[in-house]
Specification:
Blueprint: H1 7-10, H2 14-44, H3 51-56, H4 72-92, H5 101-117, H6 120-134, H7 140-159, H8 167-187, H9 193-208
Helix pairs in contact: 2-4, 2-6, 4-7, 5-8, 5-9, 7-8, 8-9
Length: about 220
């Protein structure tokens, strides 16, 4: 018995189309909520903002929010997670290609500081939410930055760009200086990412030669 149904009609599944549209709508709704949340947190700060403030910036019904996020804290974490993902991409094009220690440090800091100030909304987000952002440093999305930094340091040591020093200590130092200096930087007027990069780079270089060299047989 042969199937006389035309191939183009036979391959069309209305249920698949409906499922595809639902998934697209879900993705668009989530994107709209994240965009609205980023704007609200930049204007009001996470402490003063509410779920209602976020939903009002969208065309969605108030109850729709809870299909995607359980509360304000979760969507704030998602906003920071998205920004972290973009920052990771930029670091892959920066310090991982450095040929000297100075270039490694400078690119690490320049990527971080420039990223914060290039978008006025992101700058405002950093200015109004640094305490809340600090609480997310151990979250998986943000933790990915530290893991990538550790990997880049190990790769730089293997290439001879950096001496064989303690990877974990150096990574913690680089991340700590970047975060703390950025918090001071965004509070200044004018905001000066070039000056912040220069200070942080020179600070790291000034102490680099005084750090103890690790035994090559030890793991980081």
């Amino acid at each position: 018995m042969t199937d006389d149904t035309p191939p183009d009609l036979a391959s069309t599944d209305p249920r698949g189309e409906r499922s595809g549209r639902r998934e697209q709508n879900k993705a668009e709704n989530r994107t709209a909520l994240l965009k609205a949340a980023r704007a609200v947190f930049a204007e009001m700060g996470s402490g003063a903002a509410s779920v209602r403030d976020i939903v009002r910036r969208t065309d969605l019904a108030s109850g729709t929010f809870y299909n995607y996020f359980k509360d304000k804290d979760e969507i704030f974490e998602a906003v920071v997670g998205e920004l972290t993902g973009e920052l990771l991409k930029r670091h892959r094009e920066g310090r991982s290609r450095a040929h000297t220690a100075e270039e490694f440090f400078r690119k690490h800091y320049a990527v971080y500081f420039d990223f914060i100030v290039e978008d006025p909304e992101l700058l405002a987000l950093a200015q109004k939410n640094f305490t809340a952002i600090r609480t997310l440093l151990d979250k998986p999305d943000v933790r990915a930055l530290a893991l990538a930094l550790n990997e880049d340091i190990r790769a730089a040591i293997a290439r001879g760009v950096l001496p064989n020093i303690d990877v974990s200590y150096l990574a913690a130092s680089l991340a700590g200086v970047a975060f703390e200096v950025s918090m001071v930087m965004v509070a200044r007027d004018p905001v000066d990412p070039v000056g912040a990069t220069e200070f942080a780079t020179r600070l790291m270089l000034g102490g680099l030669d005084r750090l103890p060299v690790r035994d090559s047989g030890k793991s980081a």
